[in-house]
Design brief:
Four Helix Bundle (Hemerythrin (Met), subunit A), OB fold (Dihydrolipoamide Acetyltransferase, E2P), 600 residues, 4 domains, six-stranded mixed sheet, alpha+beta
């Protein structure tokens, strides 16, 4: 019996459906999904399937059913669709059915079901059974909302052309500034990003689209600010956090009732009521912020939360103490909600992007990296994303063998720049670009080591990476933190805290490794945090004082940048002078010894 005589039977809502097994490549559990901003409702998102970007269609939405939560039974059917693959969510899979002992008929003009019947290709009836199985038209269901075959074939052709081009130009690289919005990672090509700024006071402007927050004063000019969350119809970052906090607060009040009921019935505390199963504990551990006030409060909440669970799991819990601890935790959570609005501004950043000659600031949740990657790691978006709402995506970057996806945005299609040009600040905002030519200003990446702020010329920076695994090296000089692997390249990492004579600190989410070239060799500089990509007028940059110029230990300070009217001082460093000639030799010897030992 051929595979065309078999169907995969699955359930969506109350109904049974079928798909020819020769069209179903595989059936997988519901994967980690990357959502697409402003995508059609039927598109759940995209995922990585063994290195390939797979669009996922929410079959319930396509069939006109209410959306439901993902369960243990939820599966994704990976189906062939015009020589590409598409995922379709189903509530459960029932098995495979042979078509030998069934009747297959075209659907009648009227069927008493709750779904949109235009996607039903045939009705399958099993003998001696009243149940019906509706065979879905996979071609129609995977080309929903007007995505035509021509468009798909064009996209496939483009994909092929891109692949052929990258095969011949595999060394061609692109540099991206990546950032996070609503837990998804996005990127702009670095040539599109003029600078990255902290969030200052934003003045509202009347009669503008809701995604325009207002204007920010930048070097005596006004910069229009777009909130990407509003643009993508997400709640604000502060609202998002408050919603989660409110949910956790309610969950713990219900948790308290369950624990007290367990105590009254002399029962045993179930696993889902224990600390290791509490999602709030996980959320607190994963939460990162630059705000000292919020960080201190989180520490308090974390302690109170552990105390609450310890009492519940003590063996002889006291109901009154449990109630007191739960009330204290509830008050702490409310305090967090009260300061989160101001606290998140310390984490958020503004990316200044030039769109058709007009500078626009985009408010994002946090900066992620400045990264240099091979263009062959970037795929064109799947054809199902080529809708009017999602045309702002120019490509999808696959990192970590496809486990990490970065959506690369097309700034020219992201917003209607005409709305910006209508604003009264149009001319003054253009001064951000035109008031000083590129020869009269420098662009630097600023970072912190200890209490001081430093800068490196952006032309000296290859990329900025999160602090991943660094392999320590025995007998290495103290200033060498260790060795890291950067896409197959072994790179020594210099700990600038150690180099500058500061005390060591524990690793944190904020720490970054800035990849630079020292005497033509890639080297990592470990810093406490990266602040901004900043443009500084040359008239605000001066030579270091003589006392620094004559000090051998400080000769790496190339110049002093004065920002915000001189209230903010940035020490701009010459990466070639961070190490003495002897230390450079030690660095090279350490790398050679490591490579030799690795080969052995």
């Amino acid at each position: 019996m051929s595979t065309s005589d078999q169907i995969v039977v699955f359930r969506v809502g109350k109904e049974l459906f079928g798909a020819r097994i020769d069209r179903v490549r595989e059936i997988i559990r519901y994967p980690v999904i990357t959502t697409i901003p402003r995508a059609p409702e039927f598109l759940a998102g995209i995922t990585n399937l063994r290195g390939q970007v797979l669009p996922i269609i929410d079959t319930r939405v396509v069939l006109g059913l209410n959306v439901r939560d993902i369960t243990e039974s939820t599966r994704v059917l990976v189906v062939d669709s015009y020589n590409s693959q598409t995922g379709m969510t189903v509530d459960s899979v029932n098995g495979v059915l042979s078509l030998e002992d069934v009747t297959v008929e075209p659907p009648p003009s009227a069927i008493d079901v709750e779904i949109d019947t235009k996607y039903v290709k045939n009705i399958i009836k099993k003998k001696n059974s009243d149940s019906l199985i509706m065979e879905l038209d996979l071609d129609l269901i995977t080309s929903v909302k007007g995505s035509s075959r021509v468009r798909k074939e064009t996209a496939l052709s483009t994909t092929k052309e891109v692949k052929e081009e990258t095969d011949t130009e595999s060394t061609k690289e692109i540099q991206l500034v990546t950032f996070v919005v609503a837990d998804e990672e996005y990127g702009f090509p670095i040539e599109s990003v003029r600078e990255v700024l902290r969030v200052g006071y934003i003045t509202e402007v009347p009669e503008v689209p809701p995604y325009i927050l207002g204007v920010l004063s930048v070097r005596n000019s006004l910069l229009p600010i777009v909130d990407i969350r509003r643009l993508f119809n997400f709640p604000s970052l502060a609202e998002n956090i408050r919603e989660e906090l409110n949910r956790f607060e309610k969950q713990h009040k219900l948790w308290l009732k369950d624990v007290i009921n367990t105590i009254d019935s002399a029962g045993t505390l179930s696993n889902e009521l224990r600390l290791e199963s509490c999602r709030f504990g996980e959320w607190l551990e994963d939460f990162r912020t630059s705000s000292e006030d919020l960080a201190r409060l989180i520490q308090t909440v974390r302690y109170d939360h552990i105390e609450l669970h310890k009492e519940a799991e003590s063996g002889s819990p006291d109901k009154d103490r449990l109630a007191q601890l739960c009330e204290k935790l509830s008050m702490d959570i409310q305090k967090m909600g009260g300061i989160v609005e101001s606290a998140v501004k310390e984490d958020q950043k503004i990316l200044v992007v030039e769109i058709k000659g007009v500078p626009v600031g985009f408010l994002v949740d946090r900066m992620q990296q400045v990264i240099r990657v091979s263009e062959r790691l970037i795929e064109p978006p799947p054809s199902v994303l080529t809708t009017e709402k999602t045309k702002n995506i120019r490509g999808i970057l696959k990192l970590d063998e496809g486990r990490r996806l970065v959506l690369i945005l097309d700034e020219d299609r992201l917003i209607d720049v005409g709305e910006i040009e209508k604003m009264e600040i149009r001319e003054s905002s253009k001064e951000v670009i035109t008031e000083e030519t590129s020869t009269e200003e420098i662009q630097i990446i600023t970072f912190r080591v200890g209490e001081e702020e430093f800068g490196i010329g952006i032309d000296k920076v290859r990329e900025i990476n999160r602090l991943d695994r660094i392999t320590s090296i025995p007998r290495a000089p103290a200033f060498i933190k260790g060795i890291m692997n950067l896409r197959g390249n072994v790179i020594p990492v210099i700990d600038l805290r150690e180099r500058f004579g500061l005390e060591t600190i524990e690793s944190s989410e904020a720490r970054r490794v800035i990849i630079v070239e020292i005497e033509g060799k890639l080297t990592g500089l470990l810093v406490d945090s990266v602040s901004e990509v900043l443009r500084v007028s040359r008239r605000d940059v001066e030579a270091p004082p003589e006392v620094i110029e004559t000090d051998v230990n400080l000769e790496f300070i190339e110049s002093i940048g004065k920002v915000d009217g001189g209230n903010r001082i940035i020490l701009i460093i010459d990466v070639e002078k961070i190490l003495s000639s002897e230390e450079k030799q030690e660095l090279e010897n350490t790398k050679k010894e490591y490579l030799k030992e690795s080969e052995e």
